[in-house]
Amino acid sequence: MSRDQPPPEVLQAFGVRGPARPLDGGQGTSWRAGDLVLKPDAGPLHGWLAGALADVVPDGFRLAAPVCTRTGAWEHAGWSATRWVEGDAPDTSAVSTWRQVIAAGRALHRAVAQLERPGFLDARQDPWAAADRVAWDELEVSFRPEFTELARRLRGALEPLGPSQLVHGDLTNNVLFAPGLPPAVIDISPYWRPPAYAEGVVVADALCWHDAPASVLDAVDVPAPAVARALLFRMATTNQRAAAGAAVDLLDEARRYDLAAAAIGL
User: Fold this and answer.
1) In this structure, which topology does domain 95-263 adopt according to CATH?
2) Where is 111: in which H helix or E strand?
3) Is the pLDDT of residue 46 over 80?
């Protein structure tokens, strides 16, 4: 991923002054300039989100809303912008944090439930999009030996999760908190799936990467089959990235997925 800062012409187009400073988190490509967050590689996803979210009324959450250029365009020279929102990453050691993240996701999903399915989702070919299709039996892959047995167990626990709609498929590190304000949702990763699936991803991440106790499952009221499908999604993502040559510690990640599966009774 590029770590080049936004050039002066981009700052000018969005009406902000430098200097821009890099932001941590995500894919490491975001920069803050003034009250905006700028990201490269703008495309159909950002343009669609910008238009779709324009009429969404936040209730129970804040939204890092897309911002257009001075000429009314949603991108300039491949860069897009969203409004900076106050907030910090929460304390992931507390079970209450996961309740709050899930609650913010539920509020967002209620607010966007009327949106229609964007056609560009079918064209996505990144590892996350492919892994999502694997988790929903829309794409067949051969899992690495480290994952084969667990994939079989997870598939045996899958159940229908309800109707699909637009969901944020990566809420875990994209909900920020500030005193006296509703939680802020940033960097929407759009998928067309049941909301329970997005919630399952949060629980799966909590168990795999944040040392959450097994009790988090009951605390957030997310069904085990949703977490099972989410674990299959995350494991398929690792599988896809490894196949593409990314440096992945397969044994460590297999261990984490297996412990998370055990926490939900698999």
Assistant:
1) Aminoglycoside 3'-phosphotransferase; Chain: A, domain 2 (3.90.1200)
2) helix 95-111
3) no
Question: What pLDDT, on the 0 to 100 scale, is given for residue 1?
Answer: 41
Q: Which of 256, 212, 189, 263 is nearest to 91 (CA)?
A: 212
Cα end-to-end span (Å), the chain: 36
For position 59, what pLDDT does the model report? Answer: 95
Question: What percentage of the chain's residues is helix, strand, coil (to nearest 5)?
Answer: 40, 10, 45
CA angle, corner 12, sides to 8 and 15, nearest 5? 140
151 forms beta bridges with none
Tokens 């009406």 sit on residue: 15
Rounded CA gap, 96 and 185, in Å?
17
Tell me the domain boundaries of the chain.
8-83, 95-263
Let me know: does 39 contact 13? Beta carbons within 8 Å. Answer: no
**What distance in Å separates the CA atoms of residue 234 and residue 261, rounded to the nearest whole number?**
12
* Tokens found for residue 213: 């106790």
What backbone phi and psi angles, to 5 degrees, belong to 263? Answer: -65, -25
* pLDDT attached to residue 25: 62
The angle formed by the CA atoms of residues 14, 111 and 133, to the nearest 5 degrees, is 85
pLDDT tens column, 73-107: 988 998 999 999 999 999 998 999 999 999 999 99
- pTM (2 d.p.): 0.91
Q: Round to whole Å and give the CA distance between 107 and 147.
A: 34
Tokens of 63: 């939204």
